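Project standup — Tuesday

K.O.: blocked on the structure for the chain from last sprint. Re-posting the sequence here as requested.
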Amino acid sequence: MPCYRCGVRQTDPERGKSPWRRGVMRDQLVLICPACQESADWTAELERCAKCRSAHLIRRLGQVECLDCGQIREPEAVRISGAVPGLVPAADTSPAADTSLADEVSRALDRLLGRA
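H.V.: unblocked you, prediction finished:
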């Protein structure tokens, strides 16, 4: 999943905690790259918890959960329009894009499994 602000894709993470942050925007999980986190108020566009006002939300198993206070809520009704304003469009689904992603995944697995 790319950064919702600039569209850059995550690379293989180093060991330890990822510098990428997660958030929820219009009931959709989004990622924020380290470069975009350097902007003045990168959390301004993210949804906030109704209970504690934290922007530390995630979406999983069809629910939106606050990681600070634990409140869980159901997402709003699915938007029929398809595109969500302000979010990076879906990735290219052309055969060339599929091959490129498959090659990248294969290289990552080779590194992870210690294959030559």
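K.O.: great, moving the ticket to review. The first strand starts at residue 21 and ends at 25. Residues 21-88 form one domain.
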